[in-house]
Amino acid sequence: MPIGVDFTGSLIRAGVVENGGVVQSMTAGMKAGAERPEVLDTMAQLVLTLARRPETVGVAIPGEVNTEGRCWRLPNTVGFEGVPIAWELGRRLGCPIAVENRATTAGLAERLYGHGRRHASFLIVTLGTGIGGGLVIGHQLYPGANGFGAEIGHICVDTGENAPLCTCGQRGCLEAFAGARSLLRNYAQLGGTAKDLSTLVVNARRGERAGQKTFEGMGRALGRALATVQNLLDLNAIVFSGGVAAPLDLIEVHVREELRQRAFAPPLAEIPLLLSDLGESAGVIGAAYLTAL
Question: Among the CATH numbers 3.40.50.720, 3.30.420.40, 1.10.3720.10, 3.30.70.60, which is that of 119-275?
Answer without folding.
Answer: 3.30.420.40
